[in-house]
Amino acid sequence: MAFHLQMFRSGSSGNCSLLTVGSTRLLIDAGIGPRSLAKELAVLGLNVRDLTAAVFTHSHSDHLRANTMLALAREGVPMYMNEGTLQGARRREGRGDLERLPAGMVRHFDAERPFELKGLQLTAFQVDHGAPGPDNHAGDPVGFVMTDGRDTFGYCTDIGHVTLNTLMHLKAADLLVFECNHDIEMARLCARPWNVKQWILGDYGHLNNVQCATALAQLFEGREGVGVVLAHLSEQCNTVGMARETTREALAEVCEAVVGVATRHSASQPWVLDGGRARPLELEVPC
Ligand SMILES: [Zn+2]
Ligand SMILES: [Zn+2]
């Protein structure tokens, strides 16, 4: 069964994607408001109630919004996250919308333990982001791999650095959404408070273009037909051209991949993954 990916938003203003495999429609993160979500789904001829489930990577507000969770719960859409991420969201929201969620709508998964949603097997794996330790303001951040036994999709943004465990999980991906957040020099020179810059550049912040390109080259060496969507680009500290060029240079020598870039304020170009080959619906320049 082909995988269809439609990313609605990507970046620090909001993250939300829809993965469709047959009749399974999975929302990945809900960091946009309920009206924006309803509008994007309507473009595809869908309602919120048509979603099979929503899964969450972590509790930062650009990935998880309590009012959108409430809207999902009202339409009977179950939401999956780990315990740490629910706690992180509660710490942020206090006694807000999250307290009004009907019982049973939030369900838990554990990292490294595969779970199934209507024919799709998902595995979450831990990533370093936010802050170390139990009071992490990001909750308990994860990336995902999802497979139907034939094709494999990977989703991994908001990571401070790439670990061996991350590489191990994402190696199977035929289509991968991967963070390409900033250019190091632009991040060092931008007009942000020093502590924010330190965090972004640190091991619990965001992945820079070179880290992203290096990891992708390791992941996809010798592969053909794979697709990569560079995601969560910083508005102030990156450009589409720089992100794409750094990645293309690293991949050109080692694999045959198609590289796309997710857009920040509007829906991105959709992708299809079928029989191990990924392609955007309007082809971009292959590298
Ligand atoms: Zn984010
Ligand atoms: Zn985050």
Task: Give an overview in words.
There is one protein chain. The protein is of the alpha/beta class and 287 residues long. It has one domain (3-280): Metallo-beta-lactamase, Chain A, CATH 3.60.15.10. The chain has helices at 34-43, 66-74, 83-93, 164-170, 184-189, 194-201, 209-220, 240-252; strands spanning 3-9, 16-21, 24-28, 53-55, 79-81, 106-108, 115-117, 120-126, 142-147, 152-156, 175-179, 224-231, 256-261, 271-274, 277-280. The strands form two sheets. An eight-stranded mixed β-sheet has the order 6-5-4-3-2-1-14-15. A hairpin with a 2-residue loop joins strand 7 (115-117) and strand 8. Helix 7 (209-220) runs parallel beside helix 8 (240-252). The two termini are 26 Å apart. The model has no long low-confidence stretch (mean pLDDT 95). One zinc ion binds next to loops.
TL;DR?
By secondary structure, this protein is of the alpha/beta class. The protein has helices at 34-43, 66-74, 83-93, 164-170, 184-189, 194-201, 209-220, 240-252; strands at 3-9, 16-21, 24-28, 53-55, 79-81, 106-108, 115-117, 120-126, 142-147, 152-156, 175-179, 224-231, 256-261, 271-274, 277-280.
